[in-house]
């Protein structure tokens, strides 16, 4: 699942706030790790 | 076209020095002793490479110290008589693919100033695409040579990993970083590649080659881009290049693996003490890198090895793969906005070949209905740079790069 564009845009404008940057970073990292886990689960 | 300065192509440029280099080259040609075929050609340098007597910013607001010596790639170009034509703008720390730099301005696309140039080698691609310089030197750890070249209508070569030394450049993601040229023609790429590698390239005949096409990857691109890729396939068939269908691993997987490695290695290369004054996008990527644990980084490296062996097995019977460079043409500028889905979408097509280290040529192969360039990649197995160049040359000779839909 991808983050809707509108939400990303609003969050990006708030990125100067370290807390928002941290939260967005966490969300993005979780998504990347989910794709990584899916690739590990695939039959080889 | 407005003046280049307004388009933010450069971070620094020394016009007097350029004139001095040009005068020396003119004298060499007058004395009939040019140093190489590119003696006197202007080469734009991404501001990630050390050039003696200049500061290197890597797109940051403040430069570090002034370099005493050229980076190895720059030194080879200088020895060949190339005119070093300014330090070009780029995404901050190369951690972006839009061409928007928070300190040095957003590089405008030479074909439509409302569109992105792509990045991170944004200034280089815009200069070559605009016809201002015939050559440029850039780097690529996720698509940084190929994406801007595709958006701006330039040729680019991401050579096999390690073919061009990275020494003397501010390397951000060492395990994925490739140094390579951009040019206004495949001949330009070949000439620059020979100088950068100090080796001669012998191109195979296109009709001796077999190229692969992956239907699943082709279906993921927008119709105007797909039309151009299909025209390239038809032209290769007309030139008796044999085609084979291949089944390649999932593109999203490559983006995720590559992004994890990039973020982790960039964060290690730029610890918190070095981040003062960075823009939001670079800080975000480095922040993600800080959160990646050693175990997660190790998982990403293992996944990279697995992905590379899957690609190798899938491509065992072909000499190159043909695919779009980006799934759509240059999008509109949205300065200051981090569009993560857009980034994921475009890096998915370029990142696979940073994971494998394979050589790729990006060639402009047509235009969409708005006149924006469409890029196609020719990716060969590791070490087979000549095969990718041969296919790109065949397409260039067909005149497709100048055609519109």
How does this model look, in words?
The complex is a heterodimer of chains A (44) and B (405). Chain A starts with a helix and ends with a helix. Chain A is 75% helix and 0% strand. The model of chain A has no long low-confidence stretch (mean pLDDT 77). Chain A is an all-alpha fold. By secondary structure, chain B is an alpha/beta fold. Chain B contains 13 helices and 15 strands. In chain B, strands 1-3-2-8-10-9-14-15-13-11-12 form an eleven-stranded mixed beta sheet, sandwiched between helices. In chain B, 60% of the residues are buried. Chain A binds chain B through residues 2-3, 5, 8-9, 11-13, 15-16, 21-22, 24-26, 28-29, 31-33, 35-36, 38-40, 44, and chain B through 250, 252-253, 255-257, 259-260, 263, 280-281, 283-284, 287-288, 291-292, 296, 299-300, 303, 306-307, 334, 336-342, 344.
Task: Write down the Rg of chain A.
Answer: 13 Å
Roughly how many Å apart are the termini of chain A?
24 Å
How many runs of DSSP E, i.e. beta strands of chain B? 15
Please name the two chains that share the biggest interface, counting residues whose Cβ lies under 8 Å from a Cβ on the partner chain. A-B, 26 and 32 residues
Uncertain runs of chain A are: none
Return the average pLDDT of chain A rounded to an integer: 77
Please indicate the percent range of residues of chain A in DSSP E strands (runs of 2 or more).
Answer: under 5%
Helix content of chain B: 25-40%
Termini gap of chain B? 23 Å
Largest sheet of chain B: 11 strands, mixed
- Percentage of residues assigned to helices of chain A: over 70%
| SSE class of chain B | alpha/beta
């Amino acid at each position: 699942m991808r983050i809707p564009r509108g939400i990303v845009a609003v969050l990006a404008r708030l990125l100067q706030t370290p807390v928002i940057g941290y939260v967005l970073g966490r969300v993005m990292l979780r998504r990347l790790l989910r794709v990584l886990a899916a690739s590990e689960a695939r039959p080889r | 076209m407005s003046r280049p300065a307004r388009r933010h192509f450069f971070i620094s440029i020394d016009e007097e020095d350029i004139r001095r280099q040009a005068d020396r080259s003119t004298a060499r040609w007058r004395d009939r002793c040019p140093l190489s075929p590119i003696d006197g050609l202007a080469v734009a340098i991404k501001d990630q490479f050390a050039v003696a007597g200049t500061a290197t910013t890597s797109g940051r607001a403040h430069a570090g110290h002034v370099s005493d010596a050229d980076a190895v790639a720059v030194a080879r170009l200088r020895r060949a008589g190339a005119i070093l034509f300014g330090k070009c703008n780029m995404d901050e720390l190369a951690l972006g693919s839009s061409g928007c730099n928070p300190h040095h301005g957003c590089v405008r696309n030479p074909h439509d100033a409302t569109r992105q140039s792509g990045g991170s080698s944004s200034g280089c691609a815009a200069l070559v695409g605009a016809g201002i310089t015939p050559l440029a030197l850039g780097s690529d750890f996720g698509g940084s040579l190929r994406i801007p070249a595709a958006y701006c209508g330039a040729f680019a070569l991401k050579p096999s990993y390690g073919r061009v030394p990275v020494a003397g450049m501010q390397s951000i993601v060492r395990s994925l970083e490739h140094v390579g040229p951009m040019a206004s023609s495949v001949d330009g790429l070949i000439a620059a590649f020979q100088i950068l590698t100090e080796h001669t390239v012998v191109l195979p005949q296109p009709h001796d080659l077999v190229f692969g096409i992956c239907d699943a990857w082709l279906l993921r691109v927008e119709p105007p881009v797909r039309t151009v890729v299909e025209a390239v396939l038809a032209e290769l068939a007309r030139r008796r290049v044999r085609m084979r269908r291949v089944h390649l691993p999932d593109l999203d997987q490559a983006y995720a693996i590559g992004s994890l490695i990039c973020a982790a290695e960039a964060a290690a290369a730029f610890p918190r003490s070095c981040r003062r004054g960075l823009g939001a996008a670079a800080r975000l990527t480095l922040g993600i890198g800080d959160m990646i644990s050693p175990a997660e980084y190790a998982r990403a490296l293992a996944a990279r090895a697995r992905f590379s062996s899957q690609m190798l097995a899938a491509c065992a019977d072909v000499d190159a793969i043909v695919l779009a460079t980006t799934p759509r043409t240059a999008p509109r500028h949205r300065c200051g906005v981090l569009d993560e889905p857009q980034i994921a979408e475009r890096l998915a097509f370029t990142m696979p070949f940073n994971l494998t280290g394979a050589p790729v040529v990006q060639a402009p192969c047509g235009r969409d209905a708005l006149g924006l360039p469409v890029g196609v990649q020719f990716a060969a197995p590791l070490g087979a740079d000549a095969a990718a160049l041969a296919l790109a040359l065949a397409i260039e000779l067909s005149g497709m790069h100048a055609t519109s839909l």
